[in-house]
Amino acid sequence: MKIIALHSELVRYIKTRGLAKKFEKQSSLFISNINHPSLETELLEPKHLRIFSFRLDRKYRAIFIFRDWETIEIVDINNHYR
To answer: Is the pLDDT of residue 3 over 90?
Structure first.
């Protein structure tokens, strides 16, 4: 699995919230095993849009789409409870 480089706004977002190390850790887990239990990877509603997320921590999730079978693009990182 490969993750396309983050957009500069997402990099700024994770740095200002102190999520850089958590993002690196969870991204490594994702690359090695998309179904790792701590990621809680899920298909979001509405399911026909094929938008997924994985957990960075209890509060934040990375929202992503598949570009092809081996490549994803993270399109957003947000507060899961807002």
So the answer is: yes
Contact 9, 73 (CB under 8 A): no
**Section 64-68 average pLDDT:** 96
Q: Are residues 68 and 62 in contact, defined by beta-carbon separation less than 8 angstroms?
A: no
Compute CA 52 distance to the chain's CA centroid, rounded to the nearest angstrom: 8
Number of neighbours of residue 39 by Cβ within 10 angstroms: 19
Q: What is the 3-state secondary structure (H, E, C) of the chain?
A: CEECCCCHHHHHHHHHCCCHHHHHHHHHHHHHCCCCHHHCCEECCCHHHCCEEEECCCCEEEEEEEEECCEEEEEEEEECCC
**Chain position carrying tokens 């095993």:** 33
Q: d(Cα 6, Cα 49) in Å, to the nearest integer?
A: 21
